[in-house]
Amino acid sequence: MKQDVFFRAPAQAYQGSGSSQSLKSSVPVTPSAPQLPNLDTGGSEEEALMRGGSKSFFAASRLLPAAIRSAAVDLYAFCRVTDDAVDNSGASPRVMAELHERLDAIYAFASPISPEEWRTPLEASQKFSEQLRALPQIADRAFARVVRAYRLPKKIPLALLEGFQWDAQGRRYETIDDVYDYSARVAGTVGAMMALVMGVREARPMARACELGVAMQLTNIARDVGEDARMGRLYLPRLWMREEGLDPDAWLAQPSFGPALGRVVARVLDAADSLYRRAEEGVGFLPRRCRPAILAARHIYADIGRVITKAGYNSFDQRAVVSGRAKLQRLMLCMPAAIMAPRMARGHKPLPAIAFLVEAAGISMQHRPPRSVAEKAGWMVDLIIRLEERERQSQSSVG
Question: Which of 70, 195, 342, 371 is placed for a possible disulfide with 16 were both Cys, Cβ 3.0 to 4.6 Å?
């Protein structure tokens, strides 16, 4: 299934390969990151991957600040290229092994920036540029820039590859929890990486970002029922199908649409809508200039579900599409609402399927400097608590 789907440096914005034009921003963005020179002339290639692979995400991404959008495009390019490699090879063990080798190489080059490098950013960038030339793939070099600039934990893209491996194995999804587990890997991972790129520092908004990715993947599953079935794939919960009187294997052998299948699709969309509502709790934690794009992406994807609903939940005989005009209207409506979005005082417990992503992202979130006075005060309190706890543990071990 195709995916559709985040140290304060000197005052220089991330400059990746996500656009054919310069992506330096004259307005400070959060988080700022070291300038990483554009090694490739193929910047428009990464953007074309996003435009061709996910028109909804591409439309919403136009609202991101330039530096953040550049990193998002580079991130998406790597995810899309690896997904295509798996699909085009029939998910052969050789290709999966090669993808893991490529990821190992990326992380070998993209070690976090040291304090010495912060003091000499230009020299560090030039050195890093020369090192990256050893990576043969444009998408790998682009992703390495993002990994280095935003400290993306390796466990997150490893989970993405695990999701691709599940596709290769023809994994069966018995319950909605099984579908959540799959969606967390192929889409929740993208939400986690995008959140880190945008500067998320707390577990609650990180969970909401991962859940937004899961919600988008559920929408993809509901939209692509017919397309997936014709390729011999089934991502709908098999238990829900049996509850509607459908034998999953028999249906997959001779797929067709009927009221029973429509009710299963409706339940998947209901699950997605629940997660979309959760996701809005995290919007207020993002930098203001990032909020419109994320809120727009949430609503544009939810609109796909509304198109399916209007078609009587028949996504087998036709593919649900949100028109360009409708997307533009969403973009315009989301801009003022997103900028004024408040931080929600209370939140839901994270979906169990994404808990490991929140935990993995925590390592990087600890290295991100607080933005506001309130966050700085909270950071200091947390630091004192951690130090006291460490001292108590040390004393108890000695005793």
Answer: 70
Q: Got the DSSP string for 108-126?
A: HH-PPPPHHHHHSHHHHHH
The whole-number pLDDT of residue 349 equals 84
Residue 195 belongs to some domain of the structure: yes
Q: Are 46 and 54 in contact (CB under 8 A)?
A: no
Residue 246's closest CA among 235, 233, 232, 261? 261
Cβ–Cβ < 8 Å for 314, 255: no
Assess whether 89 and 181 both reside in one domain: yes
Which pLDDT tens digit goes with each residue over 356-385? 999 999 988 776 555 555 545 544 554 555
**Which DSSP string corresponds to 280-347?**
GGGGGGS-TTTHHHHHHHHHHHHHHHHHHHHTTT--SSS-----HHHHHHHHHHHHHHHHTPPPPS--
Residue 260 sits in which domain range? 43-368
**Residue of 72, 69, 146 lying closest to 103 (CA atoms):** 146
